[in-house]
Design goal:
By secondary structure, the chain is mainly β. Among the domains are: about 60 residues, Type Iii Antifreeze Protein Isoform Hplc 12 (Alpha-Beta Complex), CATH 3.90.1210.10; about 60 residues, SH3 type barrels, CATH 2.30.30. Helix content is about 5%, strand content about 40%. It has one helix and 13 strands. The strands form three sheets. Strands 1, 2, 3, 4, 5 and 6 form a six-stranded antiparallel β-sheet that branches. A five-stranded mixed beta barrel has the order 8-9-11-12-13. The radius of gyration is 26 Å and the shape is elongated. The N terminus is likely disordered. InterPro entries: Flagellar_FlgA, FlgA_N, SAF, SAF_FlgA. This is Flagella basal body P-ring formation protein FlgA. Pfam families: ChapFlgA (PF13144), ChapFlgA_N (PF17656). Keywords: Cell projection, Cilium, Flagellum, Periplasm, Signal. It is found in: Periplasm.
Length: about 270
């Protein structure tokens, strides 16, 4: 998607080129990262003297490329201790843009600086206004549990299958894990290549108990904990709420947290 005035090819100095995109983590895309629509302090402005004519290989001038990196990094303040790598792409070398003395680099509304995305470039001081999108790849490097070897679908994970390593987690929004203990015994629903992070969407949903099973219902609050017995009305699947009928006949909704265990938090 490129919106700009095209110029006729000219030998006069001063016309240029441009265009387009950019993570677990949750993150949790970590979790998914949120972009301040126009950045906290507004658009990042770049003074590029007479950026114009053609850029034969589609590469940005170094000053503008640096601002693209800065704008992207500024939107990732909540990345924690992750190591961020921003790789600006190239513009379409067929484009010809009007000369421009000042170019704003910005993240388009709704964009997320994660994986493959884009940064907008907008001429705000020149004979003709134009706006293009530059492809950008953002890598988010952090420690995560990865496979030690190729693991086929159906594998029940063991300690020898897993290790902690620094990897780019921005390739998917599915969460990664940092503790081996949370993965032991879990089964894969799809294969995981060697050295790749084991993500939430690689795992079969764990069933803690079946409908009709006796369960312990645990009530938790600030400074107190109480429990009672009950019967599960539906299967206890990890991450999904379950209904439990207690002795009085009342039906309580909680979250399965272990073998025949349901927690209710107040």
């Amino acid at each position: 998607m490129i919106s700009l005035p095209l110029l006729r090819q000219s030998s006069a100095p001063g016309s240029a080129q441009a265009p387009e995109p950019l993570g677990a983590d949750r993150h949790r895309r970590p979790s998914r990262l949120v972009v301040a629509l126009a950045l906290t302090a507004g658009l990042a402005m770049v003074a590029a003297t007479a950026w114009a004519d053609t850029v034969p290989d589609g590469t940005l001038p170094s000053a503008l490329s640096l601002r693209v990196v800065e704008v992207t990094r500024s939107a990732m303040a909540d990345a924690g201790d992750a190591r961020i790598e921003v790789l600006p792409g190239q513009l379409d070398p067929r484009l010809r843009l009007a000369p421009c003395q000042q170019i704003d680099a910005y993240l388009p509304p709704g964009s997320t600086p994660w994986g493959r995305t884009r940064v907008g470039l907008r001429c705000t001081s020149g004979p003709v206004a134009w706006n293009v999108y530059l492809p950008v790849t953002v890598k988010v490097w952090r420690k995560a549990i990865v496979s030690t070897t190729a693991l086929p679908a159906g594998t029940a994970l063991s300690a020898s299958d897993l290790q902690l390593a620094e990897v780019d987690v921005a390739g998917s929004s599915s969460p990664v894990y940092t503790e081996t203990s949370r993965l032991l015994g879990r089964r894969l629903i799809n294969p995981v290549g060697p050295g790749l992070p084991v993500r939430g969407d690689n795992l079969r949903v764990r069933q803690w108990f079946a409908a009709g099973d006796k369960v312990t219902l645990v009530y938790k609050g600030d400074g107190f904990e109480a429990s009672t017995d009950g019967q599960a009305i539906n299967s206890g699947l990890e991450g999904q709420s379950v209904r439990v009928r207690v002795g009085s006949g009342q039906v309580i909704t909680g979250m399965p947290t272990g073998e025949n265990r349901v927690e209710v938090r107040s």
